[in-house]
Amino acid sequence: GVIRGINSRNGWDRRWYETMRMPIIQNRYSNRKTVSIKFNKPLPKSLTTSLSLNTENFQPPGEKYAWEYLSSFVVDRSEAYLSNISNPSKSKKSCSRISVYLSWGNISSKQCYQYIKYHPKFDQNKRNFNGFLTRLKWRCHFMQKFEDECEYETRCINRGYELLERERNQEFITNWMRGKTGFPMIDASIRSVVASGWLNFRMRAMLVSFFCHHLDQDWRDGANFLAKQFLDYEPGIHFPQFQMQAGTTGINTIRIYNPVKQSQDHDKEGVFIKEWIPELESCPVDSIHEPWKYYSSTDFFQDIKPQLAYHKPIIDHKIGASNARKKIWGHRSNDLVKLEKQRILDKHTRSNKLRMKT
User: Fold this and answer.
1) C-alpha separations of 251 from 81, 158, 246 in Å
2) How many domains does the chain have?
3) Which of 31, 73, 95, 288 is disulfide-compatible with 270, CB 3.0–4.6 A?
4) What pLDDT is recorded for position 301?
5) What is the pLDDT of residue 1?
6) Which domain CATH number covers 237?
7) Of the listed ranges 82-91, 227-236, 300-309, the one predicted with least confidence
8) Residue 274 near residue 280 (C-beta atoms within 8 A)
């Protein structure tokens, strides 16, 4: 679904659908003798150590499991796909979980498209299946952006945002990376993705928003860290999406997610939070989203056992959000930002009519 060497996105959507409907290539293999390779040099200790890390929470690799996940998604897991898509706990089951297999080449977008589109159950579950197919297309859309301008990885795609000053705060960065910000949904999400390599889209977007807006840190520090955590890491999606959430494109709506509201909306009972933050295991549900409001520094945050003590919030998230809005919205009037905005629109976008299904 990604086209090389194009100068305009006009007609891209039509060509994507045409490609998805083309016959799937049937590979043919012949048996060959096994080649024996002798390698006498020992592997570096750091590599053997990293390979021996606990991966029980990771999805199993390979084409066999790619088809098993796709099949189980179509048969029953997709029934709650759209209703649970933003819930960090329920989405682990109801989302397709195909992204990792697409990223590693175990299965193709075309195979997924045709398997679902022509499946006998399609008409029975059309809304959820169409929701999935739309996101499959979005995936290729973002990869096309990266193909056309790979600088997404290293600089603000809107050069005007390189002029926006941010003061690097290593303490903020470290606490965010370790899941010790004092905001339960932020910390649970980080700990979850580090342990399992996967996180639903809404929580990914929230992590980026908190890092870039509330903490006012350079998006590159967050992007490079998360790139090492995601099992489904695909640079063509990762960096354009990261910059979109960080507000450095100049063309997208700036989304500053309230970490408390996201917690209340998508993990009302604190199931996800308590799964990944044992420090809050005994915290009442009505206090789980803002524990700092309900416990004094002596009986909760300064637990007798330091390893079980949860952290106070490292910032006032309301002040952080307010400052971010003034800063990033104010910068949109910069002359270079406005000039770059038009360039990006011409290069990477297409009209709504051209996006319509064909």
Assistant:
1) 29, 9, 12
2) 2
3) 288
4) 53
5) 83
6) 1.10.579.10
7) 300-309
8) yes
> Which own/partner contact pairs does 137-141 have at CB distance under 8 Å and 24+ positions apart?
137/1, 137/13, 137/16, 139/1, 139/99, 139/102, 139/109, 139/234, 139/237, 140/1, 140/2, 140/16, 140/109, 141/12
- Cβ neighbours of residue 21 under 8 Å, at least 6 residues apart? 114
Q: Which of 247, 253, 256 is nearest to 328 (CA)?
A: 247
Q: Which helix (H) or strand (E) holds 21?
A: helix 12-21
Q: Structural domain of residue 92, as residue ranges? A: 59-148
CA distance 323 to 58: 38
How far apart CA 121 and CA 117 sit, in angstroms, is: 9
Domain assignment present for 4? no
Last residue of a domain, one of 127, 148, 169: 148
CA atoms within 13 Å, Cβ hemisphere of 136: 29
Structure pTM? 0.91
Residue type, 104: W
Amino acid at 273: I
Q: What secondary structure letter does DSSP report for 48?
A: H
Segment 124-133 long-range contacts (CB within 8 Å, at least 24 positions apart): 125/78, 125/79, 127/82, 128/78, 128/79, 128/81, 128/82, 129/74, 129/78, 131/81, 131/82, 131/85, 132/73, 132/78, 132/81, 132/96
Judge contact between 246 and 157, C-beta under 8 A: no
Calculate what percentage of the chain has a pLDDT beyond 90: 79
CA 112 from centroid of its chain's CA atoms: 20
> Tell me: the pLDDT tens digits for 290-341?
999 876 544 555 544 555 678 899 999 999 999 999 999 999 999 999 999 9
Percent of the chain with pLDDT over 70: 94
Per-residue CA distances from 121 to 95, 124, 130, 224 (Å):
17, 5, 12, 40
Q: In terms of domains, do 118 and 170 share one?
A: no
